[in-house]
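input
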Amino acid sequence: MKRLIILACLLAGSFFSSRAFACTGITLHTVDNNPVTARTIEWASTPLTSMYVVVPRGQEQQSFLPDGTMNGKKFSAKYGYVGIAVEESAFIMEGVNETGLGAGLFYFPQYGEYQPYDTTKQDQSLSDMQVVAWILSSFASINELQAALSQIRVISTDPRASTVHWRITEPSGRQVVLEFINQRAHLYENPLGVLTNSPEFTWHLTNLNNYVNLSAGSINHRQVGRLNLNAFGGGSGLHGLPGDMTPPSRFIRAAFFQSTAPRLGDEDATVVQAFHLLNNFDIPVGIQFTDPREVPNMPSATQVTIASDLRNQRLYYRTMYDSSIRCIDLRSIDFKRVKFQFAALDTDKRQPIEEIKIR
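output
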């Protein structure tokens, strides 16, 4: 058991390398203002062990610590939840609880700073990789979370690991971003609904002003001297939209793609729309490596894409191995009686291809 715990802690450290991990998050709304959050999970170095996790009410949980033990903060699940985890069932990357509160973890290198680990405060120490599990277990609203932040000390289980930040969304549509900067917790309202990685969230909002010239639709023809100029195609109003995979550029693209998406009347249709939008953020695994001999044998750096219908408590996902959309309906789960469980997202690691028979 101790060997497994140590392995999990080491994975928490090695999970975050400078070139490997990126996330893009968006938020769409139906015509009834029902929020649908969606995001990608990238990891370019190796195929992740990705799984869904079902946590019942009353499930006892405890944080990993830097010494490789699970002797940190204890917390019991007041609310049942379903999440998508990587490498270890406690490491929930994205999830929804039975009240409809959603939370997700995003990579945040170089700009975040937690409080240093204090061995005399183990009972308050919570691994950053387990903050989502703590949020989903404990709270039904952002206000409840905000009131409880002073009760925890978020730590890293490995000094080599990057910091992370979090996006939390209520069924009402209210969304915040939680960041630890200079060892202090900062909770920012996120009316835009977009999140990527570094720099800090407020910097990304300011950076949007650099793209005030962009707009949906096409640019009207213009005359320069005696020459008439015409756009080559539709969507020319977004000419100049940054196309690289850095977090600032992904943030800008996500903001404009999301803002131009029409509101639909059906939640499932909005979920499908979110997956279509996030197709634009799939990262080809090869572009992450300067030496092609280092490219791992897997189909994509974008390994999992997730969407959450918060009011209806439905969690959707697809993977790099199977682009069909799968769904877990939390309302069909009796969280008082269900057993704690987890299972791999994919059993067959090949994209299903249906052959059409012509007669």
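quick obs: The two ends are 58 Å apart (CA to CA).
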